[in-house]
Write a structure and sequence with these properties.
The structure holds two protein chains of two kinds.
Chain A: E1 2-9, E2 12-19, H1 24-31, E3 50-53, E4 56-59, E5 72-74, H2 76-82, H3 86-94, H4 104-117, H5 123-129, H6 141-153
Parallel strand pairs in A: 1-5
Antiparallel strand pairs in A: 1-2, 3-4, 3-5
Helix pairs in contact in A: 3-6
Chain B: E1 2-4, E2 10-13, E3 26-29, H1 33-42, E4 47-50, H2 56-62, E5 69-72, H3 77-80, E6 82-85, E7 89-93, H4 98-103, H5 105-110, H6 112-119, H7 124-127, H8 132-138, H9 145-150, E8 155-159, E9 163-167, H10 168-171, E10 172-174, E11 177-178, E12 185-191, E13 197-206, E14 214-225, E15 228-237, E16 244-245, H11 247-255, H12 260-273, H13 284-306
Helix pairs in contact in B: 11-12, 12-13
The chains are: A alpha+beta, B alpha+beta.
The structure holds flavin-adenine dinucleotide and FE2/S2 (inorganic) cluster (2 copies).
One FE2/S2 (inorganic) cluster (FES) binds near residues 98, 103, 136, 137 and 138 of chain A.
Amino acid sequence: MRHEITLHVNGHEHRLQVESHHTLLDVLRRQLGLTGTKHGCDCGECGACSIWLNDRLVLSCLVLAAEADGAHVLTVEGLAASGEFAHLQEAFIEHHGMQCGFCTAGFLMAAAALLRENARPDAATIRAALAGNLCRCTGYHGILRAVQTASRMRR
Amino acid sequence: MCILKEDGRLLEFHFSDEAGCLHTFDYVRVRDVNEAIALLQAAPGEVRPLAGGTELVPALQTGRLPVRCVVDIKGIAPLQELAYRPDEGLYLGAVVTFDRLLAQPEVRRLYPLLVEAARQIASPAVRNRATVGGAVCVAAAYSDWLPALLCQDAVGLVMGAAERRIPLAEFVCGDGCTRLAADELLVGLWLPSPSGAAVGSYQKLRLGHGSRITLVGAAIQAHAHDGQLQDWRMALTAVGPKPFRVSAAEALLNQENPTAAVIAEAVLRAQAAAAPTDDFRAGADYRRAMVGVLVRRGIETVLARVRGAKP
Ligand SMILES: Cc1cc2nc3c(=O)[nH]c(=O)nc-3n(C[C@H](O)[C@H](O)[C@H](O)COP(=O)(O)OP(=O)(O)OC[C@H]3O[C@@H](n4cnc5c(N)ncnc54)[C@H](O)[C@@H]3O)c2cc1C
Ligand code: FES
Ligand code: FES
């Protein structure tokens, strides 16, 4: 079944034709070419597809595109363009928060969601906030340090 | 394709089949309970409610479900309600997300066990979507949510051909099995007011942070009256076909002061009630041993919290 939907992605409005079974992840990557958001497990386990939907952190593989009609979406491309979390991105580079980089977009979206709500999280809070994101390369320490550093850089 | 009349009754209903593609299905959004029920009744089992989608969306992608249409129920106002009335208790609409639940001041003040369990469910991104009703309908044997609800004597409010109220202990009949018919909707959960100032603890053992499978979980709640603890409740998860209350241990804690010997006996009773099985994640013996550790920890945490400490 075909749906005509409107999505506001990274500040731009798009009118799109989607099928009922398309996920928001499918549409972001294939129709809009926003491949920063990664396609990992397709079942909520890895966090690689993390985005913000109407300002809430969600897993785009668990949302049907038709459900998101009229919604505002922020992907890692939009996060980067806004510059609001440039210090977080810098901290990832400085602390080697990535190796292959497959998980990085998801971690950035989750960490930014945390820092927006809690400017000075402690280590346990950071761990809990990033619990839904898996990384098979870094061993997580660089990522945790990056988020800690970013929280100190701001405010 | 379905067309609904103004009053929510069904005018036309047929699936828009597309070339036999395995995982193709229709998506319909409704605003009214009766619209949703009319759709479910049109083809029970083939039409499914969609709440947060955290279980249903990946299951649909496999193409193994016989589902041909999903009905998005998140926009139905009564299902979104979250209200506390001192004389009646807490009403949780079925599509309230865990995130919303955790932000509610009265829930945080009066239902500490619910809060501690909900905080340990999945990750923030999942809690922003997953619903309190969806978790009940999934009825996982390893659910962290069901034991917390069982300790509140929660009742499920169901609508279909008729309205039903089903105590949660009966609502769930096994791993992934509920008393809900395919053309019925869980509208909400009703939780009576606590019988005193509730003190609770949820103890969870899992493979790692964010892992969806709980190896063993123990929910403990008691109610303080003038410094005295009464009305103990205990429920276990992942050590049987469904989460369950341990009435033998509750009875003991209600009769006697929780001395070391009484706690030790309560632990034994919880272990005797558990019926864990072996699987690749953990052996039955290990699970039974951990029931002992978690129940003891839960009771001791409750006692410490009553004394004012907050470990
Ligand atoms: C990555 C991940 C980690 C998780 N970790 C945990 C964990 O640590 N602990 C834990 O306990 N659980 C965990 N879960 C399970 C989670 O709690 C459930 O997936 C969630 O609560 C289901 O709710 P939903 O709204 O997403 O349901 P949906 O996926 O929308 O629906 C699930 C099923 O219930 C039916 N349904 C939903 N609502 C209704 C209703 N109102 N009436 C009738 N039928 C309905 C649907 O038709 C479908 O069959 C995890 C899930 C994921 C994806
Ligand atoms: S792809 Fe969405 S969580 Fe893994
Ligand atoms: S950097 Fe490779 S998965 Fe995280």
